Amino acid sequence: MLLWKWRKMPANLLGERFAVMSFGESHGRCVGAVIDGCPAGLPIEVEEIQREVDLRRPSSTISTARAEADRVDILSGVFNNRTTGAPICMVVWNRDVDSTPYDEIKDTPRPGHADYPARVKYLGFEDYRGGGRFSARVTVGFVMAGAVAKKLLRRCLGVRIIAYTKEIAGIKASDMSLDEIERRRYLNEVRCPDEEAAKLMREKILEAKEEGDSVGGIVECIVDGLRAGVGEPIFSSLDSELSKAIFSIPAVKGVEFGLGFQAARVKGSEDNDEYTIRDGKIVTLTNRSGGVLGGLSTGMPLIFRAAFKPPSSIAKKQKTVDLKTMKEVEITVKGRHDPCVVPRAVPIVEAVTAIVLADLALRGGYIPAVLEK
User: Fold this and answer.
1) Rounded to an integer, what distance in angstroms lies between the CA atom of residue 348 and that of residue 53?
2) Which residues are CB-contacts of 204 (< 8 A; sequence separation ≥ 6)?
3) What is the model's pTM?
4) Architecture per CATH, 13-363
């Protein structure tokens, strides 16, 4: 028996004041986003959004062979290169689509994918091509909306959001300053500011690709310039809202702030951030909390990490079942897939972070509904 559940918020909507509706499927006509609640008067040009979307596109050697142009089309909400206060609708049209491999395996769910639970939930009406609504292709819309949110945060609050590849296949980047990370992270295709670690990461990705396999990793995100007090406890706290949003990125399996799980292995004296005053400003001597306490920003850099699993679409033969015959079978996943999603996830993590922070900043009254010229 199916139970109809009442929902307060639509499942494809993120945020309350800066609200982003995601739409589209992997092999549908387009993917995109609608932003409702963006203040009027924000200067924005399509080229700014396009730059962010281009960062999400695959590289030539370590990513999928699907070669979408991903040209951004703004349909509403921007006039004379300024937001009008009306909903902003943005789309990217899907051009390089080949659904043939998915027609062949629609009744044999791919291990690691959402094929089987989606089939059960939607009774076979779901778009199975390329993973449909469950594909990372939909994150193009996240990035478009995030580009607007990043511009809003920079202009109104001076906030910088910087994500980068921290780890791939067990290879970790060394620690360095935020300015170094920002300057060096896009100098290689794995988006890691540590050049030596980046070389090893790339080798691990290509090695897995050659074996018909895949690898995972970690993206770290640092938010600089966020004032203290941002967040709406209890259930709309800064870290709970961010965690929900980050977990909405396909392949994310874990999120931690500051010391994260390491905090369970130290004493309180080793975990607490002691306060001091520098240049007339209250700061902490350390930042083990990752810039968030009680669900509110502390004024220190907000630091969190997202763990991405290895992509589930691999060339190795795997066991599954035939949903029509109800017999065990083997499957080899064909098509064009990433052996590692971490490099392409970097701008997506930034975008989703920006959407959440813009929403909480508006809800907290730190950003006005109409910007001054």
Assistant:
1) 9
2) 168, 169, 170, 171, 215
3) 0.94
4) 4-Layer Sandwich (3.60)
| Three-state secondary structure readout of 165-215 | EEEECCEECCCCCHHHHHHHCCCCCCCCCCHHHHHHHHHHHHHHHHCCCCC
Q: Which residues touch 349 (CB under 8 Å, ≥6 apart)?
A: 163, 219, 221, 246, 249, 306
User: What letter represents residue 363's amino acid?
Assistant: R
pLDDT tens for each residue of 37-74: 999 999 999 999 999 999 998 776 776 665 678 999 99
CA 290 to chain centre: 19
How is the chain split into domains, by residue range?
13-363
Q: Taking Cα atoms as reference points, which of 57, 154, 142 lies closest to residue 352? A: 142
d(CA 293, CA 179): 25
Nearest Cα neighbor of 151 from 15, 18, 244 is 18
Residue 53: which H helix or E strand, with range? helix 46-56
From the list 326, 266, 333, 293, the residue with the least C-alpha distance to 113 is 333
Residue 172, strand partner residues = 167
248: number of Cβ within 10 Å: 16
Residues 223, 353: contact at Cβ < 8 Å? yes
pLDDT digits (tens, 9 = 90+) for 209-241: 999 999 999 999 999 999 999 999 999 999 999
Q: Torsions phi, psi of 159, nearest 5?
A: -85, 135
User: Residue 173 has which token pair?
Assistant: 């980047």
DSSP 208-247: HHHTT----EEEEEEEESPPTT--BTTTB-HHHHHHHHHH
